[in-house]
Design brief:
Layout lengths: L4 H15 L2 E5 L3 E8 L2 E5 L5 E8 L7 E7 L2 E7 L4 E3 L8 E7 L15 E7 L4 E2 L1 E8 L4 E8 L2 E16 L2 E16 L2 E16 L2 E17 L2 E7 L2 E8 L2 E7 L2 E8 L2 E5 L5 E8 L2 E5 L5 E7 L4 E3 L3 E7 L2 E6 L4 E7 L4 E5 L1
Parallel strand pairs: 2-6, 2-12, 3-11, 3-13, 7-9, 7-10, 12-13, 13-14, 14-15, 15-16, 16-17, 16-18, 17-19, 18-20, 19-21, 20-22, 21-23, 22-28, 23-29, 24-28, 25-29
Antiparallel strand pairs: 1-4, 4-11, 5-6, 8-9, 24-27, 26-27
């Protein structure tokens, strides 16, 4: 095969950029990372600095610019893209999405930056600037880290600190985290395994899977897609699902507030509850609770029956409504189902 020197000279900068990772250290207790396209991997680190390893890729990789420095009170790392349309595709994503990006390269921070300073950028799997950056971030214990990733797989593991994660279009996997975690995924789904501390999850579409969550409060909001969870031991649990249904097992929480638009709910509680409030638009509701459960009960269903393993001292009963007391009535259980059977079962 023959290759002209001019063609080689054009291709060489992009090739070198893709092959040689850059290593950048960031000082400060709070650090923010911004990148519109590429894989993001985060792991625990040593020392006192956040370290970012950058691998540029694509024919136009050499056009990307890396900027660091203080932006509105935070040390930041920003990958700057010189064009408003970016080409990116991998095995799990093909499509297009849009971003509002501030002139300083930040995005996804809601209250930061003025609307008149923003420009619209599209990431597409069809055409555009052929450049992206894969990042590996090492985080020492105790840091506060803000992660903003556009399109690309996101993976976080073995981190002890305060994490705030906002991803537009990507599957997010998080494991072995201590501290506090807020994760907002536009689409692609979110998996969290072995988390100790306060956890807040928002998933636009793709659902959420939780396994081994303990120690703090748990707040979940899923637009579409199911919510699945097991081995949950928290001070309080609040969950909302637009469509897709809820199935939670081995839950220890004195307070449970659950709302599902469609798909129903099945929850297994291993400890006697203090306060339960469950509401579904369509789909049945099943609560599995310890035999020692004691509560005032208020159940309503638009269609479907009411079944209970527990002896209920009835105060008021209608065709599809029941008020009464289980045991001494120490706690409170309120259930409302638009359609579907409500079941109270003993573990």
């Amino acid at each position: 095969m023959r290759c002209s020197l001019s063609a080689l000279a054009i291709a060489l900068p992009a090739l070198l950029a893709a092959q040689n990772p850059e290593r950048i250290s960031l000082e400060g207790r709070e650090v923010a990372i911004y990148n519109l396209a590429g894989r993001l991997t985060v792991s625990g680190g040593t020392g006192d600095r956040v370290v970012v390893e950058v691998t540029r890729a694509g024919r136009d990789a050499s056009k990307l610019k890396i900027e660091t420095g203080d932006v509105r009170g935070r040390m930041t790392f920003r990958v700057r893209y010189p064009e408003d349309r970016i080409y990116y595709s991998d095995s799990r994503w093909n499509g297009h999405t849009n971003f509002s990006v501030n002139d300083d390269g930040t995005f996804g921070d809601n209250d930061r930056g003025r609307s008149d300073d923003r420009r619209r950028i599209e990431v597409s799997s069809r055409d555009g600037l052929d450049a992206h950056a894969d990042l590996h971030v090492s985080v020492p214990n105790g840091k506060t880290l803000f992660l903003r990733n556009g399109v690309g797989e996101t993976s976080i593991e073995n981190v002890d600190g305060q994490l705030n994660v906002d991803v537009a279009t990507s599957h997010v996997r998080i494991a072995h985290v201590r501290g506090s975690l807020t994760v907002d995924g536009g689409s692609g789904g979110i998996d969290v395994t072995d988390m100790t501390g306060n956890l807040k999850v928002e998933s636009g579409s793709g659902g959420a899977v939780l396994d081994g969550i303990r120690g703090g409060s748990l707040n979940i909001d899923v637009g579409s897609g199911s919510l699945r969870g097991r081995m949950i031991d928290v001070t309080d649990l609040t969950a909302g699902v637009g469509s897709g249904g809820v199935r939670l097992s081995s839950v220890r929480s004195p307070k449970l507030q659950l709302e599902s638009g469609s798909g129903g709910a099945d929850v297994e509680l291993l400890t006697v509850p203090d306060d339960i409030n469950v509401e579904t638009g369509s789909g049945g509701i099943t609560l599995r609770m310890p035999a020692a459960t004691s509560a005032e009960v208020d159940i309503r269903t638009g269609s479907g029956g009411i079944d209970s393993d527990f002896e209920v001292k009835v105060a008021h009963v209608e065709r599809r409504a029941l008020r009464g007391t289980i045991g001494s009535g120490r706690g409170r259980i309120r259930i409302e189902s638009g359609s579907g059977t409500v079941r109270l079962l003993k573990n």
